[in-house]
Every structure is written in C-alpha cells, then in structure tokens.
Amino acid sequence: MFRDDEPSTSAVYGLTYKARCLSAQIGEAEKVRFLVGTQSLKDNEVHLVEVQDDDEKTNDIKCMSIFSHPHEIWNISPCPANADLFFSSYNVISNGSSEFKASLWKMEILDSNLIEVCELKGHQGDIKCLLWNPAETTSSRNAVSVDELNIRTWKVDTSDPKQVTALAAPKGHRFTTATWNPLHPEQLLSANENNVHGWDLRSGKETFNINYAHSPMVRDIDFNPNKDYYVVTGGDDFKIKFWDFRRPDKPLKVLQSHNHWVWNVKYNRYHDQLILSSGTDGIVNLWNVPSISSRVSSTASEEDSTGKLSRKDRVIKAFEEHEDSVYSISWATSPWIFASLSYEGRMVVNYVPNEYSDAILLDD
Questions:
Q1: Does residue 295 lie in a domain region?
Q2: Interior CA angle at 224 toward 125 and 318, to 5°?
Q3: What is the pLDDT of residues 207-218, one digit of tens each?
C-alpha cells in the first residue's frame, strides 16, 4: 500500500485566472507536457507546461509558453499527431448574449503566438467536447465535435474544414459528453443526461444504450484502451461504474469513494487496472481495479492484513491538494504521471506510488 510517511511528489502550478480544462499534449513524444486553458470573463490564456520525468520523480514543472486566447475556454483537445495543434471550444459573450464556438489553433512556441487555423461552424448550444480520431497517427485530420443536439464528424485537412455527418441526439436527451473508441474508431460513445448511447459512425445508427447509467447525470465516460467492450462512467450519484456494453442492463462493478459529483473518470492508456476519478468534492482518486482489467494480476494488487497480495479493487490513494471542484484530469504520455485541475486555477501533477508502478512492471 501507499505509505502515509512517503514523501510527497506532488507539484503545483498556479494560474492567474479560473480554469476548467486540461489535457496531455500527446503529440509530443519526447516530453511530458500538458495544455491548460483558463476561463475568465475578460482575458484568457493557454499554458503549455512541462513536467520533468525522471527516476527520482522530482515532479519539477515549468511553463514553456503562455498564449493569449480570445475567449473563456471550456474544452481543449491537443492533436495526437502534431504537437503544435489543438482544438478549443470557447464561449463568446457579447451584448449580454453568449455563443459557443470551436476552432483549431496552431502554437508558435518561440514567439508565444496563437494562430487560428480554422473554425468549426454551425454548432447548436453548448459545445461539450472535441475529439481527434484515435486511429490516425500520421495526419489526424478527422475529428468529432459534440454539442447539445448533434455529434458532427469533420474532415480537417485544410483551413476550410468540411462537416461530413451529423448525428442527432435521441429525442428528449441532450448530449453531455462523448468518447471515441481507440480499439474500433468507427465507434463513438455518448452520454445523454443519465443515459449512455453507442454509435456507429459509418452507418450513423445507434448500436446500444445503457439506460439510467447514473442519476441525474452522467458526467464522463471512457473506453478501456486494452480490453474490448469495456467502458467506465462517472456521475452525479457519486459513483463510478464499469460496463460491458454487450450486456448493458447491469454494471459489472460499482465503486464509490467520492462524496459529491464525479466529474471525470479516465483509464490509464497503458495499464488499464489504473483509473483516475475526480469530482466536485475537490478530491482526485487513483484506483487499482485489477478484477476486470485486461491482465488480472496479483502482483499489481495491494497487500491484505496477512501480508499476502490480494485482488481487491480499491482506491490506492486520495489526493487532496485542491480547494475547489476538480473539473479536469489527464494521464500524461508517461504511464505513471497524471495531472488534475481545479476551478481556482490550481494544477497539480502526481505520480502513481512506487509500490504499484514497480509491481506492475515486474508483472509485465
């Protein structure tokens, strides 16, 4: 287990403004970097920060560049194939009214310039998320945007993006978030208030649904990156739930440690027994869930009271460095590093405890 007397490896990065979105810069293969977007009524910024990834786990963090962004940022999505590009959705407030927009941006790091490449036009209501095709590793110019009423697929290969398709939300249920299947890129999963729907992007048809996954709202969903058919959800009932969507009537497992809404839940991309969750209770939980992972392993599990290794699913550690709602979490390109962001503009970087990372590596 994680020892309470183990020295903290947390690193804190403070922003001047409120902030709501953070994401790993997965297009940068050599460095551990994150993009962070602020949410101020006047001035806004995108921060590019870098974490020192070494054996000592010093968690040194530094700002590489700060880019001026024209409006408050609600979502940020770095391009997986080109580290200089990212999508953002933002709220344009003018004369007492507001309108959500989405654009593709290019960073000029040396000059701290942010250039708008193109805008994805025609959205209705709030833009919930922007996703890159996870199967494209060289060009990554196919994307999805999700607003309240539609899932839109885009071809973004020039400064004039083309909308390819639009899938309408089920009647009476607005979209709240979505995720793209990394194992089957023709498949998308959406949350629609308290339900979850599967979509085939080729046919434009719904493939399955999970009714009343959480009540009253599903806040986040994520595909298992290593095990087909498995997904995790988090919601306003303070729970995270694991599902096999071939049998959507009942969750495989229900876990609870938060005492308020679960806003985020994310699989580790390399070791799917590791799960992150965060919520409006200001807590980030790191879970070990070996029982339904792709590699059920005793050596990657905790020690029980007798000193023997067990396969109990549990929180490895609860991180409590935040003083406000944690609206965004992200695993880094390194499998052992993750970051969290709370609304007061506090970004915290942490590591998976040594006991667990070492055991997983030994098992591999």
A1: no
A2: 85
A3: 999 999 998 999
- Based on the structure, what is the number of domains in the chain? 1
Q: What would the pLDDT profile of 260-283 be if each residue is shown by its tens digit?
A: 999 999 999 999 999 999 999 999
Q: Using the 8-state DSSP alphabet, how is residue 297 labeled? A: -
Q: Answer whether 221's CB lies under 8 Å from 232's CB.
A: yes
Domain residues for the domain of 204 are 11-268+323-353
What pLDDT is attached to residue 311? 59
> Quick one: CA torsion of 190, 196, 198, 199, rounded to 10 degrees?
-40
Is 298 domain-assigned? no
Q: What is the mean pLDDT of residues 211-234?
A: 94
Q: Is residue 250 part of a domain?
A: yes
Task: For residues 172 and 141, give the distance between their C-alpha atoms in angstroms, rounded to a whole number.
Answer: 32
Q: In this structure, is residue 317 part of a structural domain?
A: no
DSSP one-letter string for 228-260: TTEEEEEETTSEEEEEETTSTTS-SEEEE--SS
CATH number at residue 198: 2.130.10.10
d(CA 253, CA 135): 28
Supply the pLDDT for residue 302: 45
Instruction: Write out pLDDT tens, residues 277-316.
Output: 999 999 999 999 999 998 764 444 444 443 333 457 899 9
| CA max distance for the chain | 66
Residues ≥6 apart with Cβ < 8 Å to 40: 17, 18, 72
* pTM of the predicted protein model: 0.90
Do 41 and 72 contact (CB within 8 A), yes or no? Answer: yes
